[in-house]
């Protein structure tokens, strides 16, 4: 991995995670209590011994930048030439912001070239999975490939959400279609499944850089790896597929795109379960994050009807469950749940205060929110829509300025007014 540069794309606007992404970048959204989404990919990098990483940021990156600076700067050894470095849009080769995934990498072509890597590993900062990138690089080298695409099997009904990879029995990629409505392509390894791109690519640098320059000069290009770069490589270079090897070590492969509110919520509910599919407690594959200096979590009062309890839940440091009940939930740092309150199947961000006698169910509460005594959330979607953001599935999202929401709330309304 010493000859490999990781380029982690973390600049997406994350519209489908709105309103959680209204004030923060998607990779900076909290996950599993004490982590941010980007921590999962960065932990994969460190566990894979990849210690040269550029993070390309763009939208609303302040909290993401702080998190990387304060949480990841000490993980690598700068005196050995290692780095995890944030690179904002510099407009060095363009006057515009990033126009697509390929354009984001192209606009940093001089920074990539200055490191003189033999290989470039393209990653995304908004997926939940465990993967040893060194194994993928090993296959890339041994196969003599110019480009390797990481793939995982999906159901044919899901193809509209993925890049579909047509793979020969020898592992060579013979076709690539970005998010088709449907396809007759099937995996040679499982005829009931389709091989889908994970958005993880290894390029030989001497192949990647010229292709990025050609794409940048094409006025009809979307400047995207899936739409443009990868399909144009086929037939000209050796492009191989790498079947996802899951370091999560469960019966089923675990890879989640937490790009929607419902998918994000379900991923958090999984890690809080008694037997979670995604294991955060695996000492062989540790998940790292920024360390916060909060005291331990505390549960107080044991009177009948006023007992501080956390059941099947993640409760992060600095939180106090004071005579309240928390079930099947994920609490971030510095959360206070006051007496007689009941929190069920919810995700609570940091610095939230939940008042007495509140009842909260099937909800996401953003940071710095104060829930007044006696508030009921998540029991009546029609009533919740008067004040909060509610998804079609009935998931309620409460942010700091929830009282200004109109009914019904739409992302279009909020994007125009904030």
From TrEMBL:
Entries under InterPro entries matching the protein: ADP-Glc_PPase, ADP_Glu_pyroP_CS, GlgC_bac, GlmU/GlgC-like_hexapep, NTP_transferase_dom, Nucleotide-diphossugar_trans, Trimer_LpxA-like_sf
Glucose-1-phosphate adenylyltransferase/Bifunctional protein GlmU-like C-terminal hexapeptide domain segment(s): 295-398
The protein's Enzyme Commission number: 2.7.7.27
Chain residues that bind alpha-D-glucose 1-phosphate: 98, 163, 178-179, 197
Domain (Nucleotidyl transferase) ranges: 6-272
Pathway recorded for this protein: Glycan biosynthesis; glycogen biosynthesis
Taxonomy, superkingdom: Bacteria
Assembly: Homotetramer.
UniProt protein name: Glucose-1-phosphate adenylyltransferase
Species this chain originates from: Granulicella cerasi
Gene name linked to the record: glgC
């Amino acid at each position: 991995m010493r000859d490999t540069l990781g380029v982690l794309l973390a600049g997406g606007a994350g519209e489908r995670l709105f309103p959680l992404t209204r004030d923060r970048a998607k990779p900076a959204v909290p996950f599993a209590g004490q982590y941010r989404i980007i921590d999962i990919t960065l932990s994969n990098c460190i566990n894979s011994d990849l210690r040269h990483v550029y993070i390309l940021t763009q939208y609303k990156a302040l909290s993401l930048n702080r998190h990387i600076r304060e949480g990841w700067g000490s993980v690598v050894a700068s005196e050995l030439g290692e780095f995890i470095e944030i690179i904002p849009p510099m407009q060095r080769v363009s006057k515009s912001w990033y126009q697509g995934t390929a354009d984001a990498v192209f606009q940093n072509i001089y920074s990539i070239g200055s490191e003189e890597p033999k290989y470039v590993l393209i990653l995304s900062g908004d997926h939940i999975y465990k993967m040893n990138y060194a194994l993928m690089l090993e296959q890339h080298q041994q196969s003599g490939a110019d480009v390797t695409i990481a793939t995982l099997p999906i159901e044919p009904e899901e193809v509209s959400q993925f890049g579909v990879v047509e793979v020969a029995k020898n592992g060579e990629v013979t076709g690539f279609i970005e998010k088709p409505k449907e396809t007759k392509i099937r995996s040679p390894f499982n005829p009931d499944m389709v091989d889908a791109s994970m958005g993880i690519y290894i390029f030989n640098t001497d192949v990647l850089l010229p292709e990025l320059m050609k794409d940048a000069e094409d006025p009809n290009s979307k400047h995207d790896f899936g739409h443009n770069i990868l399909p144009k490589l086929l037939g000209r270079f050796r492009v191989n597929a790498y079947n996802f090897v899951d370091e999560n070590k469960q019966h089923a492969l675990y890879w989640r795109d937490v790009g929607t509110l419902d998918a994000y919520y379900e991923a958090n509910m999984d890690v809080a379960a008694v037997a979670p599919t995604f294991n955060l407690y695996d000492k062989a594959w540790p998940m790292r994050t920024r360390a916060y200096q909060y005291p331990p979590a505390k549960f107080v009062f044991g009177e009948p009807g006023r007992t501080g309890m956390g059941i099947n839940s993640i409760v992060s440091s600095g939180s106090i469950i004071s005579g309240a009940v928390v079930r099947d939930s994920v609490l971030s740092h510095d959360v206070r749940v006051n007496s007689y309150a009941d929190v069920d199947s919810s995700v609570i961000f940091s610095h939230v205060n939940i008042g007495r006698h509140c009842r909260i169910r099937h909800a996401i509460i953003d940071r710095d929110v104060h829930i007044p005594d006696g508030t009921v959330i998540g029991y009546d979607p029609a009533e919740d829509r008067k004040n909060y953001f509610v998804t079609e599935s009935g998931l309620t999202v409460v942010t700091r300025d929830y009282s200004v929401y109109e009914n019904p709330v739409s992302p279009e309304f909020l994007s125009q007014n904030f």
